[in-house]
Amino acid sequence: MPAVQTHFQDLPIILDPAQRLEIAHQHFDVCVLPIQQQLLAWCDRMIGVVNLLTRRDERGQPFRGWIDRYAVGEFLFADCHTDRITQDRTIARISQDNARSIVFHVFFDTAPGNELIYPGKRTGTALEGGIFAVDLNQPVQFKRAPCRHVTIFLPGALLGKVFPDPSVLHGRTLSPHLPAVRYLTDRVLSFAARVRYMAPWDAHRILREIVLLIADAFGEQAGLRGGKPALARAMAFDQARRYVHRNLHNGDLSPDGVVESLGLSRRAAYRLFEHEGGLGAYIRRVRLRAAADELVAWPGVPVQDIAYAHGFRSASDFTRAFRRAYGLAPQDIRQYHDDGRASPKRS
């Protein structure tokens, strides 16, 4: 059988920090190949840091597998779906390569049938989903059920504040039923959907934040100090942010309402949104941004109607706030859009 040409080169796991920051994206999908070649092509593609263990009777069967890989600074972010597969990171392979990253695996749904197997142990650790960590400097075998998941490669030194010895993360798991894990999974899923459209510095900042929050969750689970505050703060911010967006068109939406509904103190609410200038400033910014979108999307709707729909008491209040935020009047944004000279960018 002729060799399968995938035309898909491996991305580096660690990029030179002196290089110009950019997002390097590569996509691979075996569905475009003949059925007899699909599993073999996937195995050939994934030979980088693990061996894929297959049975002879599986090799001629259909195999679904696709992956989007993004190199972002020192991180490698891989969004992947495969049918059932077994990955084996052996000590022999470890001795032959220089892959020493810490790896976080994040599952988007509960995935019964996954199992981690360690050398020297008769039984493995069953995984139902959630998040688990692997140190590529230690051997492990991973039996993965059909599922979609994300794999994040990162330098262990980044986790030093929580785990001075990051190798202790190897094999640790976080249950998918934990509120923190559901929150983190949502963050990862959102990032996976947007990363290819993001500016490199924004992608790097958000991915680094996600990685550190996952480390904090593992730190809290391990009873280490310093893990809980950052994660609790992020979750509280997310709750407040979601509340604001759900009630954006409510004219009574206010910082006091958010504080009362979520059981926060005024001081805590301000600290959560301090970088925005406070919760009130955040609400106004989000309202203005949503209004700007609707001004363009609905050119026939009067400006005052859009103002009232987004909680502004009058068209004049809305216009003044809009000018301060964007440097032009609400009606001008429609003219800019129609002329093709500018259009509002989604944040």
CATH architecture of one domain, by name, is: Sandwich
- The total of beta strands comes to 12
Structural class: alpha+beta
Biggest pleated-sheet summary: 7 strands, antiparallel
Tally of individual helices: 11
Compute the gyration radius: what is it?
24 Å
The CATH superfamily name of one domain is Jelly Rolls
User: What percentage of amino acids are in beta strands?
Assistant: 15-25%
Mean pLDDT reading: 81
Straight-line distance between termini: 50 Å
What structural keywords apply?
347 residues, alpha+beta, Jelly Rolls, Arc Repressor Mutant, subunit A, seven-stranded antiparallel beta sheet, five-stranded antiparallel beta sheet, 12 strands, 18% strand, elongated
What does this structure look like?
The chain has 347 residues and is α+β, with helices and mostly antiparallel strands. Among the domains are: 151 residues, Sandwich (Jelly Rolls), CATH 2.60.120; 91 residues, Arc Repressor Mutant, subunit A. It contains eleven helices and twelve strands. Strand 7 and strand 8 form a beta hairpin. The longest helix is centred in the middle third of the chain and has 22 residues. The relative contact order is 0.08.
Chain-wise SSE layout:
Elements: E1 23-29, H1 35-45, E2 51-53, E3 65-72, E4 75-82, E5 85-89, H2 91-96, E6 102-107, E7 114-117, E8 125-127, E9 131-135, E10 140-144, E11 147-154, E12 173-174, H3 179-194, H4 200-221, H5 228-246, H6 255-262, H7 266-272, H8 279-297, H9 303-309, H10 315-326, H11 330-339
Quick structural summary:
By secondary structure, this protein is an alpha+beta fold. The chain is built from 11 helices and 12 strands.
